Amino acid sequence: MNKLKILVISGLMFFSGTYLTAAQENKELTGQTASARIVAPLILSLTANSKLDFGTLVKTSTSSDGTAVLDPIVANATTLRTLTDLGALGAIGLNKGSVPEYTLSGEVGLTYKISLPTTDVVVTNTVLVDSNSAASNEKMNVSAFTYAFSAGGLATPNAATLIAAGTATSLTIASANTFQVGATLTVDEGQSTGTYAGTYTISVQYE
């Protein structure tokens, strides 16, 4: 008889516990916060009439390649280019070359980086209809891209801001941000005459 009582009491306790658990009230936490921050987009623009232009050049050697280096830190037209085995025709008013200047705007105080080509960019003689079939002396390589920036009150890009393409450099958005791009052109010893052109890509992104 005692065993039966114990069994009945245990069963009642079990069903009683189940009922109490099922009947508990749901608990809520109201007013929880969801948030986001929207920042100004990066806007990159090219200053009008500025471009990466190595100018008018004369091949002065038929036994070795020549190079023209554009310096992004432009003090004056005389120091813009460094020529090796190449001559310039500035005396008769032909193009002495130029470097492009870019303007950047975004969220002041955030960091960003500039990306330039790290592999050679090919420019091709524009007289060719199909640039893909151009002979080696109808193409030239542009390489060793660099940039120099002006931000935070710097009047012009200076030597302290000269950076080679592929260098991991974090920059900070200021109220005004500009940078100039330079590169090196290699001219074959048997380069064909003509006007050469090609394209390259530049990008900026927040970090």
Radius of gyration: 34 Å
Q: Count up the helices.
A: 1
Series of H and E elements: HEEEEEEEEEEEEEE
Assign an overall shape: elongated
Category from helices, strands and their pairing: mainly beta
Helix content: 10-25%
Give a description of the structure.
The protein is mainly β and about 210 residues long. The protein has one domain (about 45-205). Helices cover about 10% and strands about 35% of the residues. The chain has 1 helix and 14 strands. Strands 1, 3, 4, 6, 8, 9, 10, 12 and 13 form a 9-stranded antiparallel β-sheet that branches. It is elongated, with a radius of gyration of 34 Å. The model is unreliable at about 5-15 (pLDDT under 50).
Short description:
The protein is mainly beta. It has one domain (43-206).
Key traits:
207 residues, 14 strands, mainly beta
Outline the secondary-structure elements.
Elements: H1 2-22, E1 43-46, E2 57-59, E3 66-70, E4 81-84, E5 86-88, E6 101-105, E7 111-115, E8 121-125, E9 139-151, E10 162-164, E11 171-172, E12 177-187, E13 196-197, E14 203-206
Antiparallel strand pairs: 1-6, 2-5, 3-4, 3-12, 6-12, 7-11, 7-14, 8-9, 8-13, 9-10, 9-12
